[in-house]
Structures are given as C-alpha cells and as structure tokens.
Amino acid sequence: MSSRSFAIGLGSTPKRVLPGFGLSLGISLTFVSLMLLLPMTGLFGQLAGLSLAEYWAIITNERVVASYVVTIGAAAVAAIVNAAFGLLLAWVLVRYTFPGKRLLDALMDLPFALPTAVAGITLATLYSSNGWMGQLLEPLGLQVAYTWVGIALAMSFTSIPFVVRTVQPVLEDMPNEMDEAALTLGASDFTGFRRVILPHLWPALVTGTGLAFVRSLGEFGAIIFIAGNMPYETEITALMIFVRLQEYDYAGASAIASVVLFVSLALLLAINIWQGRFIKRLHGGHG
Amino acid sequence: MSIRLHEIGKHFGRTQALEPIDLDITEGELVGLLGPSGSGKTTLLRIIAGLETADNVAGARILFGERDVTHLHVRDRRIGFVFQHYALFRHMTVFDNVAFGLTVMPRKSRPSSGEIRSRVHRLLEMVKLEHMAHRYPAQLSGGQQQRVSLARALALRPDVLLLDEPFGALDAKVRQELRRWLRHLHDELNFTSLFVTHDQEEALELSDRVVVMSNGRIEQIDTPDELYRHPANRFVFEFLGDVNHLEGTVRNGVLTCGDARLAVDLADGPEELLLRPHELELAPSATQHAHLPVCVTAISPVGAEVRVELEADWLGEPWLATVSHADYERLHLTRGTRLYAAPRRWHRFPDERSKQAASTLEAVS
Q1: Interface contact B132, partner A, CB < 8 A
Q2: Considering only CA atoms, which of A268, A149, A278 is closest in space to residue A212?
Q3: Nearest to A181 among B87, B91, B136 (CB)
Q4: Does domain A51-282 have CATH number 1.10.3720.10?
Q5: 3-state class (DSSP) for residue A194
Q6: pLDDT digits (tens, 9 = 90+) for B168-219
Q7: Chain A partners of B149 at a C-beta cutoff of 8 Å?
C-alpha cells in the first residue's frame, strides 16, 4: 500500500532500472547553468542599461556594420575553402594507407592545440611583405597580410579541424561496397562520387562547415595580428567588441556581442534541425 | 552468357590467395562457390566482377561468351553484383536505388524517364516490392533489402549475375525463402549466375554445379549429387556434412581401437575410417562384424530424424548418429543408454598426397 502511494506521489514516472538519473541530470544542469547560462545572463544584464534606440544605434554603427561584412565575408570564404580541403583531408585519412598517416591525422588537431595568438603571430610574420610566403606572393600582386585574404586565411587555419573531424567518422562508417555497387552499375568515378558518396557525407560536411563558419565568426586572437585592423576595411567584429571593452563601454561591447551570439545560435540551430531530418531518413524514420 | 576463366591467380603481397584456376561455366548455369572462409572464393568472385584484379601473368584470361573482359573496368563488364550486406544507397528511395544503373547511363543510350519508370516498376513487381517503391532502405527488413539489391543488379540486364554470400546476413527462415525464390527467378530469366557461400546446404540445394574451394584451390567441381556421393578427397567429404572418425589398427581383417572391433577388408596397419551420421545403425547388441559399445549422451528429436550424440572411452571425439523416430522409440533411447553401433558403410581417404582414388565400402553384415 505504501509503495503504491509512493509511486503516485512521484507522478506517472515509471521506475528506472539504470541508477543515477536524478543525480547525473542535476549535475549536468548545474554545470550548464554555471558555465553557459550565467555568462550569457551577464551579457544580457549589461544590455539592460541600454534603451532600444541606443542598442540599435550601436549595432548599426557604420564602422560596426562594415566589420560585419568583413567578418561574415571572410568567414564564408574560409568555410567554403575548408569544406573542400577538409573533405579531401578526411578522404585521404580514411581511404588510403601511407607512411606518416598517423602523423597527418594528429596534425589535424594542431589548430585546436595551438594558442590562437601564437598562430596569429606566426601567420602574420609568414605573410607580411618580408616574410617567407609574403616575399613570394607580393611580386605576383597577391597581398595576404593586412587584407581580408589574411583574415580568411587565419580563420580557415583555426577552423579546419571542425570539417575534418566531423566528416572523418561518417566516412569511416560508409562501407566501400557502396561505391563498388555504384561502379558495378556502370557509374563513372565522378558520378559515383556525386550521387552516392557526397549525398552520404552531406550532413556531416554541412555540420562541419557550419561549425567552422561559426567558429570563424568569433575568432579573435589568430586574426588581429594579420588583419591590419584598418577601419571599414579589415576590422573584424570581435575587434569592435574588444575596442569597446578597452574603453570600458561594457554595454556597447555586449550589444555587438549579442549580435554575434544570435547569428551563431540561429545558424547552429538551423543546422541541427536540418541534419536531424536527414539522419532520420537514413535510419528509418518517415522523413 | 558463358564464363570462362583461364589461369586466374591472385597474390596479396607475398601470400597466395588463389592458385591459378581454370573454370568453365556454361550459359544459364547457376553455380555455387563453396568453401570455408579464407578459401579464396570471394576473391575469385571479385576478380570475375572486376572489383579485384588477377595476377598479371601471360595466360590469364576471363571471357564472357566470346568477349575478353580480362582488362576491362568493372563498369564496362556488364555484370550484376549483389553484396552480402546489400550495399543499398541509403539516401535514395527503393525506386531510385533500382533506377540508379539506368539513370547513370550516358545520355545517348539512356532510356527516357517514362521508360525507366516502367522498367523499374516491372523489376519491383518481380521482387514483389512494388508497394515499397517510395520507402528508404532503412525502412525495409533484411530480406526485402536484399531483394531490392537484386532488382538493382538486374536492372541493366547484365550478362552475368554475381552474388557474394547473398543470404549470409539473413536469418534462417528468410534465407530458405529467398533461396527458393532465387532458384525460381533463375529458371525463369535464365541468366548465368555465380554465387559465393560457406553454407554447404545452400550450395547443394541451389546450384546446378558446385565448385568446392579450400586454401585458394579448387578441390572439386561437380553436381550436388555427385559431390555428395563421390567426394574427390577428404576435404570435400568432411566439408559437405557431419563426419565421425574411427581410428585404429587393422590386424587380420579386424580393426581394433580400445575395446571396439570392426571387421574390415583392409591390409594390416593403422587406418582411419570416416562415417556419416546416417550410416550408423544402433542396436542393443553387437553384431558378428561390429563390436562398437557406445553410450548416449545427448538427444535432439527435432526434425525428420533424431540426432543422437554418442560417447565411449575408445572415442576421441563424440560421434553423431541420426536415427528414425520409429527406431528411436523402439530402442527406448534416453541419456545414458548403453548400446552398440554398427556402420552400414564407411569411407576412407588413404593418402591425400598420392591422389589415390578414395574408397567407399559397404560394410560386411
């Protein structure tokens, strides 16, 4: 009798066999609150001091808008370049065996391991007009350092692992038989790739590219050394935030940061929803 | 279309996966490649398909009819290939999977989309899946997926159909069903087909002829009936069914092994005899010619016959005997029953390497 009333007291929750649900969920939520939600609340707390008109004025400031264009443009270029080369790298790492494969595989994580400022300084010295690469490229009329090309380069350096590491496991799971089947049915190598392999990798590739893009939007350390930071030309949005902070204009910094945050979140959410539908179809849902 | 192989061998690095093999398959035949894993049967099938290349030696030839396909790319060989794990394109519907081969044809020779649609529907009808056309592979059962993969392979009207363990990933009942269905389909459409299996029952039931392979070598090519009755060597005999061993020494026409005795018509010396489970008779007393005392240790009364496991201290490995349900009841068999076995016939393969004809003798009774 008492056990029954106890069950009713808990609502209709069926008794779980695996232990620790309450504890582990509780810890997870606490962690998420402390690490993610608290800083975000702080950000919006800063915004509370602004009126809507002030907020709008800050985020549509001419110089800030120019920085959006530079950041999004460079991030888009970096993401597209990474999509192509990341796919190729993942392909090479999964489909072939060659000496030094392990090393190349480990090298993929280097951008994660390296402090971004170190990467930024290295890139800037390499590509400045008297650096190794800069010396070679300058006579060809190709200026990398202190232009948006340099920004895109730094972005693609820091975000390439996102593409490789999302595509790689999917490619590993894809049986060779699938492209063999396409070949036995008379498909050319290119058709086989376009109609069988690419559609299979598509969700992972889009996710990886999306993550790389979002990462590039927020990148700061690797870029500012190579960007040159000329107003209206090579200033990125993260720099605009940094400048506001240096001037102790926390509200202004938060306003611009909130724009970056919304764009990133919206993009990630869209990718997640789209990918969920695609994957459901592969695994037997009615998508 | 007939398939002829001449001197087809394969090395992977320094290991020889396939000794140079000659094989002729006539038009319209359904041939099974049977062997344990590592026997080279899948390698051979993949070489015929063009998914693997044979060792490049002067005499190596693969002919489909009169067409020499030795150096042809897989996409130009006009084969249909069915994979063990179906290898369906998971992001395409059943319809698109079957239509794939037709839609990737060069624009000049490609049928119109209406024609493709009607051909795919005819194929889906043939494999009884027309109502599943718009499902995705993940929504089908294993047997249905394998039927889709078969329809896909047949869509281009291939010269030969090659199947790599087509039923290996399916459960026993579906496997039976599909096997019979494939046999019917083959008799109806009369394509030449070659399939790989490690299941002797499947090979014997389905094939016109069976190629038995081991260690990259062809051991025997024969009809299922011939294969079972006249195995060329010990490997084939042992691979095609359960085998009981009797090892002992022959002296004066009597083979002795512990307290077991069997009258045999053989010269003196050590001997090993092989017996099929259904060739053993069980009786409460020994006969004049056979004194093989055994003890029943397990009984499985499922199916047309009762399978009985026998043990004795003169036996290294337990024997298996099959008796009719009538005999089973007459003998009152239970676990622990002690009785006598008597072979109706036995086989021996004296020396593998001398290629001497094997002997199968009716036991004296």
Answers
A1: no
A2: A268
A3: B87
A4: yes
A5: helix
A6: 888 888 888 888 888 988 888 888 999 999 988 899 999 999 999 999 999 9
A7: 181
Distance CA B60, CA A4 (A): 79
Q: Which residues 6+ apart lie within 8 Å of A74 measured at CB? A: A148, A151, A152, A155, A216, A236
Q: What is the DSSP letter of B356?
A: P
Q: For the segment A52-92, what is each residue's pLDDT rounded down to a tens digit?
A: 999 999 999 999 999 999 999 999 999 999 999 999 999 99
The reply to whether residue B100 touches residue A195, judged by beta carbons under 8 angstroms, is: yes
Cα–Cα dist B35/A60, whole Å:
75
For residue A202, the chain B residues in CB contact (below 8 A) are 91
The full set of domains in chain B, from first to last, is 3-239 (3.40.50.300), 244-362 (2.40.50.100)
Tokens representing A82? Answer: 């990474």
Q: Which two tokens stand for residue B270?
A: 């050590």
Pairwise CB contact (< 8 Å): A191 & B80: no
Give the DSSP H or E segment for B144. Answer: helix B142-154
Q: Say what the pTM is.
A: 0.80
DSSP 3-state of A196? helix
| Region for B101 from its dihedrals, namely left if φ exceeds 0, alpha if ψ lies in -120 to 50, beta otherwise | alpha
Other beta carbons within 10 angstroms of residue A87's beta carbon come to: 22
At residue B121, what is the residue type? H
